[in-house]
Structures are given as structure tokens and as C-alpha cells.
Write a structure and sequence with these properties.
- With 319 residues, this protein is α/β, with parallel strands linked by helices.
- The protein is 36% helix and 14% strand.
- It has ten helices and eight strands.
- Strand 7, helix 9 and strand 8 form a beta-alpha-beta unit.
- Helix 7 crosses helix 8.
- It is globular, with a radius of gyration of 18 Å.
- The model has no long low-confidence stretch (mean pLDDT 97).
Length: 319
Amino acid sequence: MPVIHSSYRPPFFLRNGHLSTIYPTLFRRRSSPSIVRERLELPDGDFIDLDWSEQKCSRLAIIGHGLEGESSAKYMLGLSVALRKRGWDTLAWNCRGCSGEPNRLLRSYHSGVSGDLGHVIDHAIPKGYQSIALIGFSLGGNIVLKYLGEQGSNLHPEVKAGVTFSVPCDLTSSSLRLAEWDNKIYMSHFMDGLKDKIIQKNKMFPGRLNLNGIKSIKTFSQFDDRFTAPLNGFLDARDYWLRASSKPHLEAIQIPSLMIQAANDPFLTEACFPKKIAKASKSLHLEIPRHGGHVGFISRGSEYWSETRCAEFLEEIFP
């Protein structure tokens, strides 16, 4: 597919990538769709919490959050409200340990847990939806794209479209980019949350984790080497980044999928803009707005451009 010429134009004072990234967290009002929480028990004894917003529609959007996010994040709720207005049920799923309660196992979530998304889809299928769309922000988008590529022609026939925003599809370059000085505020935020989860896990599993020097960990490279990789079956951080990235799976995607990456996203490098793959693909649509930051895409109204654009793309697939 040709790379899409984007129509997004932000308010003039939000053309900076960092401002676009931070503004919604500070100033966006939280939407409040009607939500019912369900706990999904997993085959390995763990659980995932699901937030359903149902109105007996025939179409379901399954939405995944970003790193250290949750289903109640403003961008998650905003998209749910936008899709509900257009005749969709929504299911916002929390990665393990992200719903306000530690998960049961020593391992938690990471950027490549596509199997957990598979469990969520398997749970939703029996409800009888005619069409399902998978949507993901940042880490959640990486999981969506990785899942779609891994499944290929074996995908559930009800799953008919994917939409992602601000995806670090090349985790190596994105992890190193976030360690640079101008991204210190984001890295500090992520590290605080991730280290808190490890400290909680140490209380649940005494003696299983070595917390010596944990306060000195400041980058994904250090954290993933020390914790993410060994707890999830990877050799080290580099092995984890390589095997959990969605980019190697993009060519195998076989359903219409829209990937929106802002050119001024402070989290992403050129490696996260897979233009050649998209141009050669019959299914992957790549849209690169000049502005938007990381999961920003602010509009002047209550509905953000990302939500409107997502709905427009889905209406093309599900008229």
C-alpha cells in the first residue's frame, strides 16, 4: 500500500512533539463510558482484567494500552466513547499487573505478549460478534501488529481489521532513543512504574529477585537485562527487543491494518517507520502525520483526531 498522505493538522501551539505527547495527560478531560469489569482467568493460573462497554452491537473493538498504562487511560476511554457513538462495543484489556492489582505470577507483561491478546480474542469470539477490530496504542499497538503477523492466514475470521498508533515496532532503536537526554522525563516515569512493580513482586516472591542496586537502574537496557529478559525467557535485553518487536511480522499481516506514526514522535527512530514494508504490502496502511507526538494527535474538540481517523478507517472496512 502507498504511504498515506495524512490530513492531520494540530492546533498551532501543539506542533512540538513533546508538547503533543504531554498535553493530553495534563489537560484532557477523562471520558466516562459505561464500563463493566470482568476478570479473565488464564490457562497458566494468572489473570487479565477486561473493561467491557457493551450496547449489543454486532461489532467489537478490542483496545490495548501502552507501557505502564491501563484501560482507564484517557486515550483508551476517549477512543471507546468515539467508537460507541458509531455503533461499536468496546473491550479495553489490561496487561498482566496493569489493572491496579499485581498479577499472580513472578512474570508480568512485556512488549511482545501477543499470546495474552490471543486469550482475550478467544474469550470474546463466543459472544457472537460478526466483526472484530484490534486497536493498540504504543506497546499495545506493537502487540496487535505482532499478533496479526504471527497469525497470518490462521487469524479468527471475525477479526477483520487492525489500527495502531505510535508503535515502537523496532524495540531496539526505540529503547535506545528513549534513553537519550531529551526523553529523560518519560524514561524516569516508566522506570518508576516498572521498578515499583518489581518491588511488589519481591514481596510476593521473597528471595526470587535480586533488588540490589535497583534504584540506580535508569534505562530500559538496564531494566530489561536485569528483570524483563530473565523473567520472560529471553537471554538479555537485546534478545528481548529483537524477539518482541512487531516489525519482523509486518509482512505477514493479511487483513487491512492502519499504522499511524507521527514524524515528530520523540519515542521513535527512522527504523519505526516501515515505509518499504508498507509499500510492498497488500494489507498494511502506513500513515505518517508531520505532527502528533507520542499518542497525542490533539484536536480542538473533545474528540481527538486519532479517534476520528480510527473510526473513519474502520468504516471503510465495515460500511
